[in-house]
Amino acid sequence: MTPIQLPTFLALITLTITTLCLPPAAQASVGLQCNGPDRGSTLKVMHIYDQCSPFRPANGGVSWEETVVETMKKDDARLLYLSSLVARKSVVPVASGRQIIQSPTYVVRARVGTPAQTLVMAMDTSNDAAWVPCSGCVGCTSTVFATAKSTTYKTLGCQAPQCQQVSGAARCTGAIPTSSCTFNQTYGSSAFAATLSSDTLTLATDPIPNYTFACLSAVTGTSIPPQGLLGLGRGPLSLLSQSQSLYSSTFSYCLPHFSSPNFSGSLRLGPIAQPLRIKTTPLLRNPHRPSLYYVNMIAIRVGRRIVDIPPSALAFNPTTGAGTIFDSGTVFTRLVKEAYVPVRDEFRRRVGLPNVTSLGGFDTCYNNVPSSFVFPTISFHFAGMNVTLPVENLLIHSTAGGLSCLAMAAAPDNVNSVVNVIASMQQQNHRVLFDVPNNRLGVARERCT
Ligand SMILES: *[C@@H]1O[C@H](CO)[C@@H](O)[C@H](O)[C@H]1NC(C)=O
Ligand SMILES: *[C@@H]1O[C@H](CO)[C@@H](O)[C@H](O)[C@H]1NC(C)=O
Ligand SMILES: *[C@@H]1O[C@H](CO)[C@@H](O)[C@H](O)[C@H]1NC(C)=O
Ligand SMILES: *[C@@H]1O[C@H](CO)[C@@H](O)[C@H](O)[C@H]1NC(C)=O
Ligand SMILES: *[C@@H]1O[C@H](CO)[C@@H](O)[C@H](O)[C@H]1NC(C)=O
Q1: Catalytic residue at 38?
Q2: 327 is catalytic
């Protein structure tokens, strides 16, 4: 990772840009907007800094640079986690600096139990699990699910078939038949202890009875989303497999840009109301990592030129885990070094401005670019689908116009990553369709509102 150059950084701090501060008009209507119900099978997707998100920093005055640098650090941890997933190795905890929140970036409101209790859960397309912080949880920091208040809550025993599908249920080997299915797992730089449980999960207006989830009883570290995690992966025990009859393993989302005025996007569950006309590419299945959404990226274009990338940097390899995935939990697209360097070099060449600076992990930033300046577009070419990203998906700008950075990076040096991750910044304001029965992933431009 390129260190921040001190003079540049000091100059930046003095700008204290607050893209995250809302105009007064927006603040006045917060109450009304936030309590609006989710309808049908569509959930409102919020950025964690959304005015309706309970995880929005209290002072609201996080500077743009601070946000960017923090986000990049969280992405490093996320990449380490994804790399451990693809390599099927246990996660090496990373030392974390001061972090605002180290969980996935987008949250939705889910309701658990009878009567329903609302939790704002993180959405994670690369994970199958559903985790809910439960009453009595040691180390949980936000609202918890009061299990005793739900008439439909049950814990699952070691004998339950679902318990066999959970990794880390060590206590169950040789356990007496009545023991509950407790297990420990790691996630990013965190660890947790949980009891496999079931209850009704209500998404928008759809109840999913007897939904199996991990009821968290102890948490260490800062990576576990404070009010739980809703995994949208496609492996066993995932929401998709548990709601098969309701949603047929089909969903789409539109992720809002974090600096748009009211941020909200949507998570649309089930085959109904999905876009009919949408460009798609086949989903690839990695038998070792069934939950990840792999696709076949075959080329990257900067402006009109196809960048010269060694085919091995893009090729899908189920054994090593190499290839390209779509992930909603990483913010900035990460390419393996052999792909990133030529893309970046071509981008710099096309931009043609002499002074390239860096910010946090971004190595291609420009100071004081006139607003009339036209940056090149970047296209990702997938089998059967080209996605050309407009500038809003490629550059992060400080609102004062001081600095513009290419919002992509290579994997940091300490992460031996083989996977290319198409991340949320590059997906914003697009509808991304996950159609598992037809084995395809679709992308279409859409203004999320
Ligand atoms: C899980 O972690 C807890 C501490 O959080 C520990 O008491 C327990 O023994 C662990 N269980 C297993 C199965 O490793
Ligand atoms: C779901 O749980 C209820 C009790 O809460 C039970 O009556 C019902 O049989 C369960 N359904 C399934 C499919 O397991
Ligand atoms: C978002 O904000 C715009 C104007 O600020 C408003 O017209 C629109 O209705 C808002 N959308 C939602 C979903 O609140
Ligand atoms: C680039 O940096 C040099 C040295 O810092 C400075 O003299 C020059 O004006 C800069 N050029 C532009 C276009 O900003
Ligand atoms: C993607 O773009 C390349 C040229 O830039 C073209 O050859 C190819 O046919 C396009 N693919 C699709 C599916 O449109």
Answers
A1: no
A2: yes
